[in-house]
Amino acid sequence: MIQTIGLSKAFHGAEVLKNINLQVAKSEIVVLLGPSGSGKSTLLRCLNGLEEPTGGAVELNGIRVDAAMKVREKRSRYREIRKHTGMVFQQFNLYPHKTALENVIEALLTVKKMPKHQAVQIGERLLERVGLAGKKDAYPSRLSGGQQQRVAIARALAMEPDIMLFDEPTSALDPELVGEVLDVMRELAKEGMTMMVVTHEMKFARQVANRIVFMDEGTIVEEAPPEAFFREPATERAKKFLNQLS
Ligand code: ADP
Ligand code: MG
């Protein structure tokens, strides 16, 4: 479902992703770990075109973007990829002047040109799914961080993505609100969504991931099932990373 082939990304000549080769199967949950600055966000952003690779290629759901392609071709393929890929960020980025429901159905109306009554039906169902049926008319400022993030997840799901990318979705939340967002992600995982998740929630990583990918300095240093990774990481770098957490 997701593949990177010799993916690299440089900013002003500095390579922050170096020859990343990664494959994620359908319904697989991959958790990306690594120190700050190791390239985790850049990797996710290269998958959906928020950043463009400077070398190698990415392929999502059969749509390939090669760094060597013409800019216009790359952009058009990334547009296709984004139709099937949802992304959730640390900052929820909801429209402040739209209600929860309006945020969720925005893309259905503007991108899919769906009739409003149909979009509303879907939006209400999605808000129910993330436990926010009663908040559909609330504006983001009236919602807690955890509720806002769940609206952001519902909004991403509205486009019926085959892949969900999460970049530290709970890092901006007060500790008591983290669980409700992770629970929604657990449900998605259970339903077979293909997911790549950057998170500092090690318990979630242990319980939900099928595989841990550990990055440092722009490379994949280690890949392992969570039990093995947390019990006995193979590399000194991963050991050091885990020791610093505890
Ligand atoms: P992580 O998410 O693992 O903390 P990032 O992917 O955000 O790491 O960053 C990896 C490296 O790329 C860092 O050194 C960061 O400063 C650099 N970087 C990220 N985005 C940009 C950008 N738009 N311009 C220049 N450098 C960037
Ligand atoms: Mg990051």
UniProtKB/TrEMBL annotation:
InterPro entries: AAA+_ATPase (IPR003593), ABC_ATPase_HisP-typ (IPR030679), ABC_transporter-like_ATP-bd (IPR003439), ABC_transporter-like_CS (IPR017871), MetN_ABC_transporter-like (IPR050086), P-loop_NTPase (IPR027417). Its main location: membrane. It comes from the Bacteria. Coiled coil: none annotated. SUPFAM superfamilies: P-loop containing nucleoside triphosphate hydrolases. Pfam families: ABC_tran. This is Amino acid ABC transporter ATPase. The lineage of its organism: Bacteria, Bacillati, Bacillota, Bacilli, Bacillales.
